[in-house]
Amino acid sequence: MFHHAEEVEMMWDTTTDVLIVGFGAAGACAALEARAAGADVLAVDRFNGGGATELSGGIVYAGGGTRIQREAGIDDSPDAMYTYLAREVGDAVRPETLRSFVDSSPEMIDWLMDHGVPFEASVCPYKTSYPDNRYYLYYSGSECSGEFRALTPPVQRGHRAKGRGASGKMIYQPLARAALDAGVRFQRHTRVLALESDTDGRIIGVRARSMSSAPLAVRKRFAAMAAVAAKPGIYYPPLRRLLEHRLDRLERRYAREVRIRARRGVILCAGGYVANQHLLARHAPGYTGGLALGTTGDDGSAIELAVAAGAVADRMDNVSAWRFIAPPSAFYSGLLVNEKGHRFIDETRYGAAVGNALVRGQGGKGWLLVDAELMRRAREQLAGEAIWFQRLQAESLLRTSAIRADTLHDVARRAGICPDGLTATIQAHNEAIARDEPDPMNKPREFTRPLATGPFTLLDVSVRPKLTNPCPMFTLGGLIVDETTGAVQSATHEPIPGLYAAGRTAIGICSESYVSGLSIADCVYSGRRAGRAVSNRLAEIGD
């Protein structure tokens, strides 16, 4: 909703210079920059804060010669990083914006570390989708794949925050502590319902419903249920839906309406829309069956509030769907095939590239073919390469999604794949290796090996709703913003005064193509950009 202030005599419950809606990585970074510029900052969050970042693997995509890369002896340059990302990012942002992102990357890692985020220069010696607890610097994208190493040599740029398991908490929590220590006020359990504007169309605040005046026992119960809905609810959607209903009931009963004035501006950092099945069905119907990577707050409400105020959303059909085939790393030597038995991608590509190739080009259906020798190697590697949740996923794939047979013809027939097509695919693959010719999908030679020893296994890696091997997804579309300031733009390409956006609420670096760490890196970059820009508008806004 969107309200003009002239409709009623505005009565403000709280006043601040900068209001931040959503307190995850982007919100915390925006708050820190605005506070450093001397602004009074209030952050609100519908739940406990943290957003998708706190639930994530905690990867920041950074390079160009970061402190961590130098300590690890990794040779990188801004030009090499730009060359790689230019192919991944495409036209999501202007070249000068990408150049700014790349050139500021080493400073970003320094800034994060200065605010308590821990990194470590321990390099993962093998390609994987996510390193185990021994390693915190790795190839987190498609750097090793044939298409990209033809452009620039592969370099490790995935900076994993130091912490056991999924270490996203080691990014969000230090940033949140630093923000609070700097004087940022944080109001939890506050849902923003509408943006408020003055007669000139400037956004001057919000209308919200807050649980802040509810009894202490109710607030504690709300916080506890919100925490469980976030995690482990992210892994078990029925539990999350149950808790969402209970949270809504508490909110309807105890929340009261509040109006918050923002003298300098409002920054929307409330995530994407992967938790909103209606928005997904409208904009990206091929992606409604995945595992939502995010919180209940990733419902697109901030995007819709801004659109009601005249903003424009773009790339709403772009969703990152992940289908990782490793660990174990031996599976990179397998072959991804479709119903015709044909390959459709270099298997060493990042899991989001594989997932999107499945959804957009193969009707969501695909299988990974391995032979007996690859399967033996994969089982040997699993314990040494995988964190607990990766082992669970791999074991589930092997137990519930595997079709085996002694011959290629039989395994294809059992899986419903064209036997002749699969046989021809294997023949072309093996002959290319024997003749020392390029792989038909341009997979690098170090990842290729003949598949010749039965029994053969086809692992179903299709993208469809299932609990045993779900496909994680999150959204990449968002509000169009000025790429210098983060100001939200109108349909006439003019900034909406007083309104900014960052993170997955906005179009950003990763809005065309995602690799691990690029979203959090963009949250940091865009959050800091908006925090600085809104603070610089003090001279334009009087009390």
Summarize this entry quickly.
The protein is 37% helix and 17% strand. With 543 residues, it is of the alpha/beta class.
The secondary-structure class comes to alpha/beta
Strand content: 15-25%
The backbone outline, from C-alpha atoms, is globular
Q: Can you give the mean pLDDT?
A: 94
Structural account:
With 543 residues, this protein is of the alpha/beta class. It has helices at residues 25-36, 51-55, 67-72, 78-89, 95-103, 105-114, 146-149, 169-181, 216-230, 237-254, 277-283, 301-308, 351-361, 372-385, 388-400, 408-415, 419-434, 518-535, and strands at residues 2-4, 14-21, 41-44, 59-61, 137-138, 158-160, 185-187, 190-197, 203-210, 256-268, 291-292, 313-314, 319-321, 335-337, 367-370, 402-405, 456-460, 472-475, 478-479, 487-489, 495-501. Helix 1 (25-36) packs parallel to helix 18 (518-535). The two termini are 25 Å apart.
